[in-house]
Fold this sequence. Notes:
It is a single chain. With 314 residues, the protein is an alpha+beta fold. The chain has two domains: 1-139, no CATH class; 141-309, no CATH class. Helices cover 40% and strands 11% of the residues. The strands form three sheets. A three-stranded antiparallel β-sheet has the order 1-5-9. Strand 2 (163-165) and strand 3 form a beta hairpin. Helix 1 runs parallel beside helix 2, helix 1 packs parallel to helix 3 (118-136) and helix 3 (118-136) packs across helix 7. It is globular, with a radius of gyration of 23 Å. The protein starts with 29 loop residues before the first helix and ends in a 5-residue tail after the last helix. Residues 148-302 form the DUF7587 domain.
Amino acid sequence: xxxxxxxxxxxxxxxxxxxxxxxxxxxxxxxxxxxxxxxxxxxxxxxxxxxxxxxxxxxxxxxxxxxxxxxxxxxxxxxxxxxxxxxxxxxxxxxxxxxxxxxxxxxxxxxxxxxxxxxxxxxxxxxxxxxxxxxxxxxxxxxxxxxxxxxxxxxxxxxxxxxxxxxxxxxxxxxxxxxxxxxxxxxxxxxxxxxxxxxxxxxxxxxxxxxxxxxxxxxxxxxxxxxxxxxxxxxxxxxxxxxxxxxxxxxxxxxxxxxxxxxxxxxxxxxxxxxxxxxxxxxxxxxxxxxxxxxxxxxxxxxxxxxxxxxxxx
Length: 314
């Protein structure tokens, strides 16, 4: 199962799926065969329910994210900060006593209702994002680092913790709390990241508010070395326009800068307890990267060719 499927929210309790397989040489009565057939049907129905449940949870996550993003962008455009009202995400499962077949029907109805305004909401958000970028590009705030690059990269694959959508961009692992944060400075000055947050993101595996980026094509290629062959197909690297990140008010900094400001030593062979993986090429963005900030998507092979032709990382 992908992340979040066994997390209860939106009144959607996941169902545990158990598969019972008879031994190959087991001599079964017809009654016992029928029992196994029914058990297999229950297993398949449970799998179907969990898959539908996960898709509905993701859809409702999207709706919260779009609503919060609309609030954020409207605040930026009008100059009036609109307060966020976080909805109650966990509540009682009113369908808990229903058979799975009825639960599946109910989820299909909820999905249909939830999609009624989704496309319009996303189109509205994208129009406002473009407006905000166009308005702010002429008078950008100071970049977060003195030598901030013009382009950052992010490699991604299906099923990754950081959620990706071509219409919405990237969102952090900590679903569904992915709404943008209203701050006029940098990620460093916001003080949103402490030692534990940075160490968890760089070394741990718990949900994080941070999204990994790199300014080094060769490091991106090194990062994906161990990806499965099926994960390497298609355009798997996002090329991100840094000026548009600034125009959208996305908070980002180098991991090494954040570590230094927090008094954290970086890992070295003689400093084994230092923060691992943080370096000058490793950047992090806070919670989101809007789709409008992504200039294009490129394939791994095209990046490899570009690095080879320009002797990058040789």
